């Protein structure tokens, strides 16, 4: 029986590919989605207007630093296409087409204990209801694994896990129930309507919405009266987080604090390595 393995973020691909080399029965295609749905606007992103709004927000974060954001929902945005686009929409269309064409095809969703993976799970569940019974979840929630030195640790992200440890994890695969499709699909609707600036994992599959400015106080606390590289400020904040937020997001918040007059900057506001900040 053919299996498609889904992960959220390219960094999770390599360890699962490594596990394939250790277990032929685990082998299958790996599909990774790049859009981090734990951050940014979600309101009506199942519509063209919502998709365009999310694209615009990602472009705001990216500035001249990076290509436009990936979009995960089918359909083209109403805005003019940017120079570079994500392959994510096409990946999802192809996945649904494969599920319709091959009634034996199974999908395994791999999720670590972090907001990005859980947000991605809720989104997928809301989209794949018609294929119930063939969609499986492997949620590595608060589970012990062995590291390279043989010590026990509790990973929050798939890329932290050794390939050989995935051989044990595969035993956790279970079909998502109809009740879960309904309840978790409703949770995705709630998250879209709440439209928080950022979503934090409280435990299990519970996500808590917070304003986009949630980490601003930490960024200000990590700043001082002397100029220092913005990326140093960001690294001080992420180093204290159990569930790190992408640097690009925090870099955007630093720029917003500059615009608000709470931080003074020196240098060109491109990447966080290009400018320095200090308290006003």
Distance between the termini: 62 Å
Give the radius of gyration. 20 Å
Number of separate helices: 9
Q: Main β-sheet: number of strands, strand sense, barrel status?
A: 5 strands, mixed
Second-tier CATH architecture of the largest domain:
3-Layer(aba) Sandwich
Total separate domains: 2
The CATH topology assignment of the largest domain is Dna Topoisomerase Vi A Subunit, Chain: A, domain 2
How would you characterize this protein structure?
With 280 residues, the protein is of the alpha/beta class. It has two domains: 3-191, 3-Layer(aba) Sandwich (Dna Topoisomerase Vi A Subunit, Chain: A, domain 2), CATH 3.40.1360; 216-279. Helix content is 36%, strand content 19%. The protein has helices at 13-22, 48-62, 88-101, 115-127, 166-169, 178-194, 216-221, 230-238, 247-259, and strands at 3-8, 29-33, 106-112, 135-140, 145-146, 152-153, 174-175, 198-203, 206-210, 228-229, 263-267, 275-279. The strands form four sheets. Strands 2-1-3-4-7 form a five-stranded mixed β-sheet, sandwiched between helices. The chain has a three-stranded antiparallel β-sheet with strand order 10-12-11. Helix 4 links the parallel strand 3 (106-112) and strand 4 (135-140). Helix 4 packs across helix 6 (178-194). It is globular and about 60 Å long. Mean pLDDT is 89; it is low at 64-71 and 73-85.
